[in-house]
């Protein structure tokens, strides 16, 4: 049954210290009922190698994966498998057993899957919780460390018994209980409600409990939860995207309210946190498939939303009067969409949101050739399917459109302004330059612009025009290394930026040392600065509010003093790519000495692909550091032992670091803390 804890149990095993130390490589992949072979292979390949594949065909990718695993002791978890074909036809041949002690762990609801793919051991069926275990879990969830008051012991046992031994139901009931006051009368209300919903013997009590959870949500939260049904099963949903579509749909008034709504759904246990940012904020979320199925059923009942997962001979477009559609598989989209246009009044005209999911192969045109008919659309996300070419003219009739995301090889901006209400504009492409025209400055409501390889034409940046006062996020814009003056003009016209990703390209052989001034962006909190080639920085002026900084291919020694002076900096990432291209800003592996430089508020430090062999730093340089991540720094010999004296350090993560002495130094730091402080506060993770 869904909600018994299969994935939770597998995850506990996967992250166990003994398991981690035993295997050379590990990979975790969710298969799901509607799976895509290529996505699964890509996910496993990236976890095994540390790099994404370069777009090879499925069979080539499967063979590459097999070769990477050969000779290694590996652990692969295939979570939530529904079909034996996923194993027998699509995956099995990539996992040859070369007697190294490798293991494959599969979780599934279906007994037939257990029987057909069983190799060495009998399947393990999770037992249901006893009433006492359910009660202990419920009390621990509700009261945390405080313990259950004596007056609530009896009623909590009655409530727990009604959960029928399913951990998911216990967790959902916890979310309901915490909505009210911790008084005996409220527990009795929940108990009576549970008896009302669960008064029949069936396998539907997970859904029935979800109905009770849904009924206890405030009216403003209900459409936000149902909208999550637009995303595929087991999807890891970027919170930034979820919040954007909620806002563009009008479910919430602003970003701040949307964040509060999300936290309310998380506290109700209907939405789960899958990944947090360095500062504790939620980066990705997801829902249990029991919750997702409830959202899909409820949405269809209320004509809120429809998820189309494949061809359906029974469904007719005119039967659907709702406002939102999500399509899961690209090969059916064009065929399905054309059905509506055989009638005089196609259902598409009612749509407010249209989202495609699951990566599809390249197609000749956009999935809906009649997209201009969707006049009421507010949200259009076609970013899961690669299109060869698109023009902004295609979307000109969509005057209500607020959110547009596409994946296109070549995107052409029309010189005239379109989409007057657009707030979020995302264009993914395959490394082809997108020229931004002057008309983009007429899109006054733009809040989030993310266009891969975007460059401004001279007219597009220097012509006199009003500012984009609402623009908060600008990502992936590029300039030539000798166009720094144009950057200054651009940023003056985007005065309220909070996030900026900006890159510079061009050979720096004859270029002067680089100087960049950003101090006028007083609201800027996140900055990613990258160069095509390593560059010597002669001057950087950052805003004092900057909290997160990512520097890619900059000379560390020339920038470190500028960085250390930032009073609010909490996150610092220094990156290079010498491993891939055999070049680095260090001509040879050398020492990185920080000296007496201090990062006063830095909590998170990440070093990626840096060619340094020795690192000299004292605990005084990082007085508040909590997390240190070192990735693919093959030459680095050790972490300074002084890091054991940083009282705030909680985690050291080593990713694809082959040097045994580096790991040994991390172990020494952990052991010294345990010996000196008598606690195990440092979590050491090696991948």
From TrEMBL:
Main subcellular localisation: membrane
Keywords recorded for this protein, A-Z: ATP-binding, Coiled coil, Leucine-rich repeat, Membrane, Nucleotide-binding, Plant defense, Repeat
Entry keyword annotation includes Nucleotide-binding: yes
Start and end residues of each Disease resistance protein winged helix domain: 230-292
Taxonomy, superkingdom: Eukaryota
InterPro entries: Apaf_helical, Disease_R_plants, LRR_dom_sf, LRR_R13L4/SHOC2-like, NB-ARC, P-loop_NTPase, WH-like_DNA-bd_sf, WHD_DRP
NB-ARC domain ranges (all copies): 1-146
Membrane topology, as annotated: Peripheral membrane protein
Segments forming domain Disease resistance R13L4/SHOC-2-like LRR: 351-574
SUPFAM superfamilies: L domain-like (SSF52058), P-loop containing nucleoside triphosphate hydrolases (SSF52540)
Cytoplasm is among the record's keywords: no
Locations listed in the record: Membrane
Any Pfam family matching the protein: LRR_14
Annotated family: Belongs to the disease resistance NB-LRR family.
PANTHER family assigned: DISEASE RESISTANCE PROTEIN RP (PTHR23155), NB-ARC DOMAIN CONTAINING PROTEIN, EXPRESSED (PTHR23155:SF1228)
Protein name per UniProt: NB-ARC domain-containing protein
